[in-house]
């Protein structure tokens, strides 16, 4: 017989919240499966929430209040739980941090920047200071450390399968001195050569294409519907409406069709790094 694992609500805000959820569910006489009837989520997803290992999505919090008759308790408190213990990251990004840990596949589009988990510290500092020019060194260091901690998404053996589509202008926008840009691009190539993530470049000459308006990220899971995340300088939005996510996903397929293949893309990134190393400025593809 499998021993029931107790939850220590004193460990963190998510553990306290998850313990209360399990107490209310069991008090209502509902199994994990019975509780989830009428939702999109799987029982392993719910179990992780109860043990403080995932944050509760707003839609599932509403479902909990309806199923358990808890007068909006879980929906009222889920945002505070999502924000708990996320120093160094913007509040609007906390949902994505949790979802990244559970995703089995991530597809990303970046029209202007190298994705955060692939950035080295000089690149991070330049971008953070561009958005927050009066940031203290202490807060800046926390932001850099938090962003670098996400490197596992591309570097760990068990990281999600990833596709990263970049616009070629990412290569020839000199955010850093040439030697630092060379190091940054060489780092991208080194990580991508491990074949845990696959890059594609969209040439400038390809003309109009989907997602010209900004970055987008798709996350797929074994036990929950896929979601999409999009972000601006000071805000982010998580989209989980199935029909809308499906429409965006089809557009991402068309974007990938307009991009160069991964091996050609890697060679072009390598060439740009070498140009910077030799004091040249990379030029747009002919």
UniProtKB/TrEMBL annotation:
<dbReference type="Pfam" id="PF19054">
    <property type="entry name" value="DUF5753"/>
</dbReference>
<feature type="domain" description="DUF5753">
    <location>
        <begin position="95"/>
        <end position="271"/>
    </location>
</feature>
<dbReference type="GO" id="GO:0003677">
    <property type="term" value="F:DNA binding"/>
</dbReference>
<protein>
    <submittedName>
        <fullName>Transcriptional regulator with XRE-family HTH domain</fullName>
    </submittedName>
</protein>
<dbReference type="InterPro" id="IPR001387">
    <property type="entry name" value="Cro/C1-type_HTH"/>
</dbReference>
<dbReference type="InterPro" id="IPR043917">
    <property type="entry name" value="DUF5753"/>
</dbReference>
<dbReference type="InterPro" id="IPR010982">
    <property type="entry name" value="Lambda_DNA-bd_dom_sf"/>
</dbReference>
């Amino acid at each position: 017989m499998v021993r029931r694992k107790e939850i220590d609500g004193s460990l963190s805000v998510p553990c306290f919240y998850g313990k209360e959820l399990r107490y209310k569910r069991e008090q209502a006489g509902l199994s994990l499966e019975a509780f989830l009837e009428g939702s999109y989520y799987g029982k392993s997803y719910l179990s992780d929430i109860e043990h403080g290992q995932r944050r509760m999505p707003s839609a599932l919090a509403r479902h909990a209040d309806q199923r358990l008759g808890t007068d909006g308790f879980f929906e009222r408190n889920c945002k505070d739980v999502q924000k708990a213990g996320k120093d160094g990251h913007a509040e609007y990004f906390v949902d994505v941090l949790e979802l990244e840990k559970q995703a089995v596949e991530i597809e990303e589009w970046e029209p202007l920047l190298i994705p955060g988990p692939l950035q080295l510290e000089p690149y991070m500092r330049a971008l953070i200071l561009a958005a927050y020019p009066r940031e203290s060194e202490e807060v800046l260091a926390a932001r850099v450390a938090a962003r670098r901690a996400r490197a596992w998404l591309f570097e760990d053996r068990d990281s999600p399968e990833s596709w990263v589509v970049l616009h070629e202008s990412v290569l020839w926008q000199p955010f850093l001195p040439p030697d630092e840009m060379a190091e940054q691009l060489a780092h991208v190539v080194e990580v991508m050569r491990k074949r845990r993530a696959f890059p594609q470049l969209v040439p400038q000459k390809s003309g109009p294409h989907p997602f010209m308006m900004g970055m987008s990220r798709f996350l797929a899971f074994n036990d929950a519907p896929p979601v999409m995340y999009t972000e601006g300088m000071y805000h982010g939005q998580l989209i989980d409406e199935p029909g809308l996510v499906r429409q965006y996903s089809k557009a991402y397929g068309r974007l990938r069709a307009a991009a160069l293949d991964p091996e050609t893309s890697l060679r072009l990134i390598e060439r740009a790094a070498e140009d910077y190393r030799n004091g040249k400025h990379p030029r747009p593809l002919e």
